[in-house]
Amino acid sequence: MDAVRVALLREVLAGTEWIEATRRFAGSLRAAVAPHGGGLLLVGSAGYEPWHLAAHLDDEAAWSGLPELSPTLVRHRVPAGAPAHLAVGPGRLAAAGRGATLLVVTPESPDAGLLEKVHDARRNGATVLALDSGDRDLHALAHDALIAAPPPGDGTAAPDPPRPPDLDLDTVQHLVSAAAGENSRPGPWHHRRFRDRLARLAEALAAPPPPRW
User: Fold this and answer.
1) What is the pTM of this model?
2) 149, 199, 202, 207 — which has fewest CB within 10 A?
């Protein structure tokens, strides 16, 4: 996401808890990868692949001079002929240990196989972060977690403090990736209705993936 869109998005969300929440989570991400110069593994669920976040973190790593933010995208299924940076399968998680950071991003509950791999990675010394809809089992394994748009009444959401509504996982990923690559504080709050400002950015958030991805 370019600087103009980041500024617009923060304008929309000024006065809500999302700015501080995403900056805090981005701070946890940076704190995890900085001492080891990288080692960031990004994985989704079997039905959700966070390639968009991978692309934005890769861009932030280049723009901010923080190469440790550039992730390895771990895929549940690797299609034939995939380029090397998109051909890392779930076996990579088995090697995750001390010095690695595992960021799990999914809008759905992870299956037992993924939870087992995350559990093994944490047991071997990896730092586990979760950006999801509030799955209890995943949060029990995570060192830090951020919930985005939990589905109502599905019984999986952990008892976290209330957050402002109407912010989906893709939007939260934009905020986290941008915050991970910068240190400035959000601008002043312009007093407009939250929903009106959010509607104004609906199209701005839909962008094609960068060429590398």
Assistant:
1) 0.79
2) 202
SS3 track for the chain:
CCHHHHHHHHHHHCCCCHHHHHHHHHHHHHHHHHHHCCCEEEECECCECCHHHHHHHHHHHHHHCCHHHCCEEECCCCCCCCCHHHCECCHHHHCCCCCCEEEEEECCCCCHHHHHHHHHHHHCCCEEEEEECCEHHHHHHCCEEEECCCCCCCCCECCCCCCCCCCCHHHHHHHHHHHHCCCCCCCCCCCCCHHHHHHHCCCCCCCCCCCCC
Which residue shows structure tokens 């617009």? 8
Which position has the token pair 């730092």?
127
pLDDT digits (tens, 9 = 90+) for 68-103: 999 999 999 998 998 888 899 999 999 999 999 999
